[in-house]
Amino acid sequence: MQDVMPNIISLPFGRCPPLHLQGPNWRHVLKLMARLSGTRLEPTVEALAISKVDLRLRTVVQFVRPHLVSPDWRTILYFTLDYPSPRNVYVKNGVNDLPHSYSLSTIPTLLRDSADTPLSKTYTIPASDAVPYPKLPITFPSLAMYLQAALEESRRYINDSSSGNRKLAKMMQACYRTDDPTPERDSPERSGVGGLFKRVIGRKNPPNKRSGNEDTYELVTPFVSDEWG
Fold first, then answer.
1. Which of the given ranges, 6-20, 64-78, 98-112, has the highest pLDDT on average?
2. N or C: which terminus of the chain carries fewer CB neighbours within 10 A?
3. pTM of the shown model
């Protein structure tokens, strides 16, 4: 977006292409969002009138590069309102599958089939007890925290070859090696916003070695206390 970011970005319910944001890399996009405290995503008035439940956000992360020899991967984030699939239709719901809401309109060219290629890697953020789908409205700083929490959740599974949830962490390792920290040991603090805040205090790292704590610290300055779940 070359124009000034609007304060309110409205998402319709149903047939509409996903909203997308892109930037040079993961950290750049999240740091920008963390600074846009006056911007939020919210449902349209029509969406609120149609839905009888809390409206939540479905997010797809994609890393793309222009050609095979390029070392530079851009980050694209796609957003739609969650839309229930028909009861008589089986819809896959894995990290490699686009949410049903993405199938209601023309799928962006880069997302078609959501299949990984040498030029593109895609991850659909799943819901978990620690990182549920965000409720709307949501501010951009809170959305940045949600995305970082999704990455931290993925890192918990980095050594579990049976879990697709580790895919985002593996994508970060492959595409942004200099920004990807060594996963920390699992602990009860690794769940929810509270765990993220606790981990930004009081831990030092070797020179030139970033950690997930440092990534989170960048997103909570200035501090914005706004739960997404």
1. 64-78
2. N
3. 0.80
What burial class does residue 188 get, using C-beta atoms within 10 Å of its C-beta: 0-12 exposed, 13-18 middle, 19+ buried? exposed
- Which one, of 136, 184, 195, 141, lies nearest residue 159 by Cα? 184
Number of folded domains that form the chain: 1
Q: Residue 114: what are its φ and ψ, rounded to 5°?
A: 45, 25
Residue 186 falls inside a structural domain? yes
Look-up: residue for tokens 């007890």? 129
Give me the domain span that covers residue 181.
Answer: 8-219
Predicted confidence at residue 52, as pLDDT, reads 78
- Whether 225 is in a domain gets the answer no
CA-only gyration radius of the chain, Å: 17
Other Cβ atoms closer than 10 A to 7: 9
Residues 6+ apart with CB under 8 A from 174: 121
Cα dihedral angle (215, 55, 137, 81), rounded to 10 degrees? 70
Check pLDDT > 90 for residue 105.
no
Neighbours of 29 (CB within 10 A): 20
- The reply to whether 141 falls in a domain is yes
As a whole number of angstroms, the distance between CA 136 and CA 142 comes to 11
